[in-house]
Amino acid sequence: MQSxxxxxxxxxxxxxxxxxxxxxxxxxxxxxxxxxPDDESFKTAVxxxxxxxxxNIIAGAKxxxxxxxxxxxxxxxxxxxxxxxxxxxxxxxxxxKLQPFPSWQMNGIDDCNNLQSxxxxxxxTKGQIWIIDGxxxxxxxxxxxxxxxxxxxxxxKSNRTNTVYVFPEDVAPKATSFxxxxxVDNTDGGYAYxxxxxxxxxxxxxxxxxxxxxxxxxxxxxxxxxxxxxxxTVNGIAISTPVNIAGIALGPKVHTxxxxxxxxxxxxxxxxxxxxxxxxxxxxTILRNENLTRxxxxxxxxxxxxxxxxxxxxxxxxxxxxxxxxxxxxxxxIGRWDSHTPFDTExxxxxxxxxxxxxxxxxxxxxxxxxxVVVNRLNRFIFDKLDLGVYNFRLIxxxxxxxxxxxxxxxxxxxxxxxxxxxxxxxxxxxSSFRPSSSSEPVPSSSSEPVPSxxxxxxxxxxxxxxxxxxxxxxxxxSSACRFMVSLFSVTVSAILFxx
Length: 500
Ligand SMILES: *[C@@H]1O[C@H](CO)[C@@H](O)[C@H](O)[C@H]1NC(C)=O
Ligand SMILES: *[C@@H]1O[C@H](CO)[C@@H](O)[C@H](O)[C@H]1NC(C)=O
Ligand SMILES: *[C@@H]1O[C@H](CO)[C@@H](O)[C@H](O)[C@H]1NC(C)=O
Ligand SMILES: *[C@@H]1O[C@H](CO)[C@@H](O)[C@H](O)[C@H]1NC(C)=O
Ligand SMILES: *[C@@H]1O[C@H](CO)[C@@H](O)[C@H](O)[C@H]1NC(C)=O
Ligand SMILES: *[C@@H]1O[C@H](CO)[C@@H](O)[C@H](O)[C@H]1NC(C)=O
What we know:
The protein is mostly beta strands and 500 residues long. Helices cover 9% and strands 31% of the residues. The protein has seven helices and 31 strands.
């Protein structure tokens, strides 16, 4: 059953009596290569510097119809495609070549209509891939912006673009915005909530399909880097750049209350700046109401501070039962929280590994209850060329039960009835849906390891310092990494946006 090649099983640690999620490496790459049309085009690309293997990094992944769609943001030159796909499922080929998606042509940087730099995508239940294209390329270098940021909604099955929306300058200026991540809300014709990681004007950009319009929600404390959480280390490498709002997750449309199903149009959106230990949330009624942006509305009054995580995070995702999964960068770990329980006491670490979870960046659910994590060692990539002799990118996967928040039809609720309560006699309570499909597998359960609390203990709401850091080999490592950081970013201040 188990493929002989490299399908390395590693159980991630937990308290002795506890059970944890069993993550497996399902794909791993020392560097990425592509399905070139022919050998000639490969040689030409190398000769012209259009393909420089050590400059390509996999950042995000989403699953649809037996494929993973992976993103390769153009942070340095020599990235021939910014969106590509690979076959999912068991394989002997654990370092597959990437097939540019939708086509080679659409990945060409010669035309602003093509994809320039894609950090993340989402794929809805109809098989439409929502692509946020930041427009600006070579973001770790000092390049000028040629193209404006845009959103494409592309139908995978018919191979056709349904929507192209170019963001206006007042929402996402091409010189400074950085579209980082998105969630898709199928309410009222469809919305995308996109994090703009901009160093100058961070916020959540809301796009309405029906209105073909976008607006931006701004809130300084919750969407900007927390000065107290800027510095942290990952396997001895110091990260010292303030990074604004990055990860975002959307709660399910359907939830249970007193054994009844509730269809909830005001879903909760969760987000966090990378440089922050706080998790925040806001309901979608607030985001969808463009009028508020013109009324000097105090978004701070509507944004909740959910609580403190043990570390800085980037990727996060919620399943359709309200379970949040989030990356814990300084811990080399994955956190899990059932949103029906208190955040402060009920967060759990379900996986932690210094080697295999070095910078977990993004999540993808498949249709079988598996959660896949993209791990990409970005902490190294931003400072230096990749070491092509070691594995730099991995997809690791575990059965956790549950599906993406997008699949809120699990209960087969009667959508005609709108907000009407529907009884759920025949449907299982939320907890049972977290059983993995194979009953012999251990479950990440409440017996998993409690997450370490942030250190030092936060006093009166302000966290003085960043998270617990992994042990550092020597002070030399830290200081030289720090110096490197300073020299790198003093050159590229305008391009910091997102180092990630
Ligand atoms: C990339 O793939 C091409 C053919 O598709 C092959 O000729 C080439 O050797 C590969 N390059 C690297 C660096 O692996
Ligand atoms: C999708 O269309 C493009 C041309 O627009 C073509 O190059 C590509 O091969 C098509 N993909 C599939 C899977 O048919
Ligand atoms: C926003 O304002 C317009 C015009 O003032 C109004 O027609 C519309 O109902 C308002 N929308 C919301 C969600 O309040
Ligand atoms: C959404 O949030 C606002 C502000 O906190 C609140 O007034 C409103 O009742 C919330 N709506 C729902 C449906 O939870
Ligand atoms: C994904 O789910 C399927 C079906 O439950 C299971 O057979 C498979 O082993 C899972 N894959 C991983 C990598 O967990
Ligand atoms: C690192 O620096 C701290 C404070 O400067 C010092 O107390 C500690 O002994 C140093 N550790 C090593 C391994 O040199």
